Amino acid sequence: MRFEVGNIRVTRVRESASTVPLLGMFPLADAALIELHRDWLMPEYVDDVGDLTLSIHALVLESMGKTIVIDTCVGERPVPGYEALSNRETTFLADFAAAGFDVNAVDVVMCTHLHFDHVGWNTQFVDGTWVPTFPNARYLFNRTEYDYWDGGAGGFAVTFDTAVRPVVEAGLVDFVDESYRITDEIGFELTPGHSPGHMSVRLSSGGDEAVITGDMVHHPIQFVAPHWQMSADDDPPRAASTRTAFRDRYADTAVRVFGTHFGGSSCGHLRTNGDSFRFDPFTP
């Protein structure tokens, strides 16, 4: 699926799609709220039985002559503690190539944060060694984020040693903060809470604007209920306040929102909806 944001071309390459029970994603959730908003949640974001749709995908940006991969999914690797996601065979690299991209021609790989489902294809296992999948790219990590997990925080960065450390050791990493710009059209927005150095990606080109959320938000219902935390939120109160500020900043604007785990087209606009909010899908 391809989108245009001004002169930037955005291509979604999906690794997997699934449904997740409401309380499995958000332990504090109230199913009555899903029912109240079912008119806009279905069928893009909630299925017939009330389970949430979930996507794991990368977004490939083409901007000013550069090819940029935002987040690299789970990959094919052991994921300690997550056997259902471990050692899965996927068509991700084949789909990446079918979309017209060459792993050797990628200029930049940017990880919004370093949880296992956002760093997986940073590396692949070749001849007994984890090697960079995108050997000619510069990998961008937030320094606060990297230092936190490198310090042994554990948690959801369980593939740090196989998907993150090898590209650092290969000399391919630049540590950046929210002031860094990949091109004149692509920068960052600090959105902490889900993880300490989490950054969303801001696009601005030709009068069009968009933002790629990363895991600042996992599902559109969190724009209605930003206090609904999920188990991977490192600092739940801060994550909730970040979501609230994001919602209030972008609701009823022309800025398109690309949800890194949203189902459907994964893209849409935030709108006020009476005294609440809704997320209207955008399909190119």
UniProtKB/TrEMBL annotation:
SUPFAM superfamilies, per database record: Metallo-hydrolase/oxidoreductase (SSF56281)
Provide the Metallo-beta-lactamase domain boundaries. 55-261
Keyword Manganese attached: no
PANTHER family found in the cross-reference section? QUORUM-QUENCHING LACTONASE YTNP-RELATED (PTHR42978:SF6), QUORUM-QUENCHING LACTONASE YTNP-RELATED-RELATED (PTHR42978)
Alphabetical keyword list = Hydrolase, Metal-binding, Zinc
Q: Which organism is it from?
A: freshwater metagenome
Query: Which Pfam families does this one have?
Result: Lactamase_B (PF00753)
MF terms from GO for this chain are: hydrolase activity; metal ion binding
InterPro entries linked? MBL_superfamily_lactonases, Metallo-B-lactamas, RibonucZ/Hydroxyglut_hydro
Could you identify this protein by its name? Unannotated protein
Q: Does the keyword Hydrolase apply?
A: yes
The UniProt family comment states: Belongs to the metallo-beta-lactamase superfamily.
